[in-house]
Amino acid sequence: MPFTILAGSYTNDIYTLLFDPSAGSLILKSLLKVGHHPSWVEAHPGDHSLVFAGLEQADGKILAIKYDEEGNGKVVAEASSGGKDPCHQVVVGDELAIANYSSGSLAILPISRKAPYILSPAPVGSTTLTGSGPNKERQEGSHAHEAYWNKVYNEILVPDLGGDRVYRFTKNGSWKIANYIGFEAGGGPRHVVVHDGYLYTLLELQSKISKHRYPSPSASASPSHITTLPTMSSPPPQPNSMLAAELLIPSTSSAFPTPYLYVSNRNDPSPLGDIISIFSISGDSLQLIAEVRSGLNHLRGMVFGGENDKYLVAGGVNGGGAKVFERIDGGRGLKVVAETKLDAPTGFLWV
After folding, report:
1. Labelling 69: which of 12, 141, 157, 208 has CA 20 to 30 A away?
2. pTM over 0.85
3. pLDDT tens-digit profile of 222-251?
């Protein structure tokens, strides 16, 4: 069965890709010109034909896009993101939580599954983070890099790359900071994932991954640090231009009963391209077990999809296009099964 995959980009376009596992093909079916750098695309969980995209620009914008059965999209609504350079957004109920990178803020925009889709010309709530770090080029102020919905604890987590913190937002009438987790100076938290009572945080600026035991925000205990490891087996000395980008833990199933964590690394000087690292995460452990050369340059976004999350789509902003990998050896490895040329892909969405 063919799959439709959307790809955000550092161009003016959102791509519609068609992946056919039986034919081993990945083709560019169509593109939708929407504006400057639609880097992240996020579907409404109740209707995957309704997609939200953020335009990474000084006057940040959020677009609502409706797709038909053929994968053709149309912009049906837009609003201000309430900040500069919205780099990530997530749907939480009837709200869109937006991470504005350059202004270091979390903004909340009311939305609907039905027309007019976006219910306000601008966010109705916004929280500006404060902080800075020792990296003067990247940490001169707070930089909200993700809005992650942790449905287990009904909270939004916001990694602050500039302030070396991950903020925990809870809702009591409006979204407010409940507390935060601090990280080593200069680490630069980029993305997080919560799994089985643990918090995993990707530290972009030092290419490391951190693991915490992770209780509820209402619990008396605080998150406790277990370990922090490099995202690759042979990291170059600091400082260097390599930057960790994404971390994912695909769902378990009878086909893939053991959970693994997958991390993308960017800017590897190897002619074989950037590394996708695979970690075992059983209990309190965190162990690098495999590294896969992707053939992609500046690998930013990657997302699992297909039956049992069997496939991983990833892209290279600076070269290599987009590729689909198949999980092998129970998830301990990856192999390329399809690829296509694509200009500056950044984030993906299986629809």
Report:
1. 12
2. yes
3. 899 999 999 999 888 877 788 999 999 999
